[in-house]
Each structure stands twice: as C-alpha cells, then as structure tokens.
Design goal:
The chain contains ten helices and seven strands. The chain is α+β, with helices and mostly antiparallel strands. It folds into two domains: 82 residues, Arc Repressor Mutant, subunit A (Orthogonal Bundle); 101 residues, Nonspecific Lipid-transfer Protein, Chain A (2-Layer Sandwich), CATH 3.30.1050.10. Strands 5-4-3-6-7 form a five-stranded mixed β-sheet. It has a two-stranded antiparallel ribbon with strand order 1-2. A hairpin with a 2-residue loop joins strand 4 and strand 5. The N and C termini lie far apart (53 Å).
Length: 227
Amino acid sequence: MKLEKATNSAKRCYDDACGAAHALDLVGERWALLVMRELMLGPKRFSDLRADLPGISANVLTQRLEGLEAAGVLVRRKLPPPSSVQVYELTDWGYEAEPIFQVLGRWAARSPGHDPTLPLSANSLMLSFRTMADPPLIAGVTATIGFRLGRENFLVRVEEREVLAERTDPANADLIFTGPPPAIAAAVYGGVPFEALEADGSLQLEGDRDLARRFVTWFVLPPKAGA
C-alpha cells in the first residue's frame, strides 16, 4: 500500500524522509529559528518579538508564527487579567529544541566569519550563558546573578554545574549587571574590563564585584575553525 504524502501548498517541503529534512520542513524557513530563540525563555507578545528581531517585517513574523503554530512548535494564548494580552509561547515539544540551539551556537562560534559586533538580543545573551558555561569551572558554585537589559530583566542561577535563566525581577540577586546585551557580552566574551564599560556608562554593577570577576571566567568560546 502506497503511503499518502502530506503536502502543504503554502510552503516548500524537501519531500525527504530523513529526520533532519523534516526538521527543516518545520523550522527551516528564514527567521523561524530566531523566533523560537526569542521564545525559549518564556512567552512574548507580537510587539516584543518585533522589537527583538529588528530585521523582520510584521508580515513575515506573522507568517512564521502561523507556520510554527501549525507545526505544533508554539501556541497562542491570552494572559490572565489584568494584562489580558495575547502572547506566543513554545509548546513542551518546542522547548525541547534548546539543545539544538546550543550545538548550533557552539558550532557557529568557531566560524572565522562570525561578527560579534552585530546586534545581540537579551534572549541570545542568556542562552549563550547556558551554551558556553564550562561545567568544571562552575563546579561547586552556587550564585544568583541578575541582569537588567533595557525592558527585559533576567535572573541567572548557577548551581550543580548548570546555568539556569528565567525572565523575572532580579532584585535579590548576589550581583546585578545593568546595561545593553552587547556591553555585557563584551565583558564576558571580549575581555573588556568592567571599569572601562562603567567609565563610558554602558555598564553598571551592583553587589558582589568579586563574583562579577569570577562570572566572566565561566564561559569559554570554542577555538576558531582552522586555528
């Protein structure tokens, strides 16, 4: 008996039974993976997604959200009162994709052509911490580090050789970084001294400065390909 082939006239498919090919059928459209990235730490409104993906048009974002919803990767729902706004949120299966982002991020970081000076979203920065943390370096560490990144706040917990991040008020953290994501990335990955970033007003530190100095040593970028 010949298997019937499911088709979707609204998008192109690879017509290939390989799991990787089907994954690209689901999330291979331009911007789809970045939409998922921005939802990886919790739900967001349409306007938030537009702000965090400045290169995407409203029309394309709508298409990608509809496609990911149809594929079962995300859902739309309304937040309870008093907000009562519509948000987009990954399904449990959608959240399972985080290791894909981690492996892809580590692999791409080895590219000689990677430009770290390009725009960086708050979610990208938080996910990079989960991706680039070196477990032996954080063995035995228990700490909370807060991040005030413009309109988004995060709390990072380091415990049991793992980095956990959530979008929440970091008021009671041991240490709080305040500034745009590229400035914090410059300190963590670029080796720019805190004092230089504080002097030009791009970074503020509150709390345990010794913890801050240790924090930036916990994340190790892989060597460039061919190096």
